[in-house]
Amino acid sequence: MTTETRPATVGELRKSGYRRRSVKDEIRANLICKLRTGEPLFPGIIGYDDSVVPQITNALLARQNFILLGLRGQAKSRIIRQLVDLLDDEIPVLAGSEINDDPFRPTSKYGRMLIEEAGDDAPVAWLPRGSRFVEKLATPDVTIADIIGDVDPIRAARGGHVLADELTIHYGLLPRANRGIFALNELPDLAGKIQVGLFNIMQEGDIQIKGYPVRLALDVLLVFTANPEDYTARGKIITPLKDRIGAEIATHYPESVELGVTITAQEAWLGRENGDGVQVLVPDFVSDTIERIAFLARSDKRVDQRSGVSQRMPISVLENAVSNAERRALLCSEPEIVPRPSDIYAALPSITGKLELEYEGELVGAGNIARELVAAAANETFQAWGGEAVTDELDEIVDYFERGGVLQVGDTAAGAALLEGFRAVPGLVGAVSTLGLTRDNSAGWSAAACELVLEALVAERRISRNDAGSYGRAPRRAAPHPKPPFEV
Question: What are the two backbone dihedrals, phi and then psi, of residue 90, each rounded to the nearest 5 degrees?
């Protein structure tokens, strides 16, 4: 329907054959169309096709309000924002209405008066889908006026109304979401008395503003998000409100490293433009290592698992690792930006800032834990790429350092120069070649692969690495004290 042909008055709208339907019926109908055509329901949401998405689909088909329950960084907000795509392109509303009054069934007093006075000549405006989504982050200081509304004395004075008149109301976010979607993030943070206002309007449709009863039969889909930790740490969802929420849907972190790598690659900003046409090449084993850091942290007892380890962590780590490689490429005039394991150490602030530690972890320190996670992740990646096939080469490498060999790896050393240094270590370049970790005409890629092998040996404590990037002999373990002779 074009701007020129769509109805401009209630009468024209009625003659056009427009049929009113509730927002939940509208979403259900559009959802059915997408299911029949096989169109993706939530583009860009990876790893939920067999778990979260079917549950959301069931709730919407049942015309239910629902809550997404999950730890931080599990795409909850992105999912609820994509619900807008299930709305019609635009809908008719009474022009000038603050709460998107239905031209055939107005809710507000303003809408009812407009129909009484103008009848079929009442003007109609068209509301796009993007204007039908209202989102609010719940905080303890949110008031009932923010959500529902409040009496506006200035409006009453200017209009000559008594305060009890509905025309004096300044509507809150929920009424302004009428005929659309109202999303409330971090629901447990909302004060209990505000939650009472929510479930009352969800079920009965009546509210009180400053002691004046006002009935608002709102047509709205309510969607909530919450973190399980919030149920006990900062607040809770009151039982009557939980009872009125149709479905509680649990989100989760990626179930495999491969899925995590795909998500991180989709979300990370890697399109670096510096005017020289330098290309960003991220080795698969580097992406794999970065993702495994998050997976290891999610099972580390020193990390608070109630808070979770957000998927934002590997995204930030990858971006910072690429930035460190970009800095090196600019300083060394390299033709490629190739991040390597040493660049992951340069991105430690992206790890430490996203780890909530238990008491034991606090004693060790976030920095030390992060370094251990990087080395362990590198070792896992190395083994996943067939590390067992180069046992002889690894023994040669360890022997080189045992005999006093030292290797300094600077994060500003060019890939070609670094690769030449690695060739001095017996077995190192050969191991990389055997595992197929090299890339033709890319010294940076091969240097990154050599670093991966060294980091795997560090994780197994066969060699050592200091904070300056120097590899050497593994620290000697102190010999046990001899037992004293037996005495009678």
Answer: -160, 160
The Cα-based distances of 237 to 4, 79, 191, 192, 301 in angstroms read 48, 21, 9, 8, 29
Q: In this structure, what token pair is assigned to residue 248?
A: 């509680």
Pairing between β-strand 90-94 and β-strand 124-128 as defined by DSSP bridges: antiparallel
Which segments within 234-331 are labelled E, that is strand?
A: 247-250, 279-280
- Beta bridge partners, 7, equal none
Spatial separation of the C-alpha atoms in residues 77 and 35, rounded to whole Å: 22
Among candidate residues 286, 471, 312, the one with its CA nearest the CA of residue 385: 286
**Cβ contacts of residue 46 below 8 Å, gap of 6+?**
254, 259, 262, 263, 266
Sign of dihedral through CA atoms 419, 421, 422, 423?
positive
SS3 249: strand
Q: How many CB atoms lie within 10 A of CB 280?
A: 15
CB-CB contact of 384 with 370 (8 Å) = no
**Using an 8 Å Cβ cutoff, are 264 and 291 in contact?**
yes
- Pairwise CA distance, residues 394 & 401, whole Å: 11
**CATH 1.20.1440.20 is held by the domain 10-250:** no
For the chain, the residue count is 488
Rounded Cα gap, residues 153 and 145, in angstroms = 14
Neighbour-count burial of 214, counting CB atoms closer than 10 A to its CB (0-12 exposed, 13-18 middle, 19+ buried): middle
What residue type is assigned to position 297 of the chain? A
Checking if the pLDDT of 230 tops 60, the result is no
Instruction: Determine the Cα–Cα distance for residues 303 and 362; give it in Å rounded to an integer.
Output: 9
State mean pLDDT over 88-96.
95
Most confidently predicted of 104-108, 149-153, 312-316: 312-316
Identify whether the C-beta of residue 350 lies closer than 8 Å to the C-beta of residue 320: yes
Q: In whole angstroms, what is the distance from residue 201 CA to residue 465 CA?
A: 62
**CA separation for the pair 251, 27 (Å, rounded):** 22
Tens-place pLDDT, residues 241-255 = 888 899 999 999 999
Taking 90 as the threshold, does the pLDDT of residue 49 lie above it?
yes
Token representation of residue 259: 């899925």
Other C-beta atoms closer than 10 Å to the C-beta of 103 total 27
Ranges in the chain annotated CATH 3.40.50.300: 10-250
The closest alpha carbon to 26, from 91, 95, 108, belongs to 91
Among 173-182, 274-283, 335-344, 454-463, the least confident range: 274-283
CA–CA distance from 480 to each of 188, 352, 477, 483 (Å)? 55, 35, 9, 9
Q: Are 335 and 278 in contact (CB under 8 A)?
A: yes
Q: What is the mean pLDDT of the chain?
A: 88
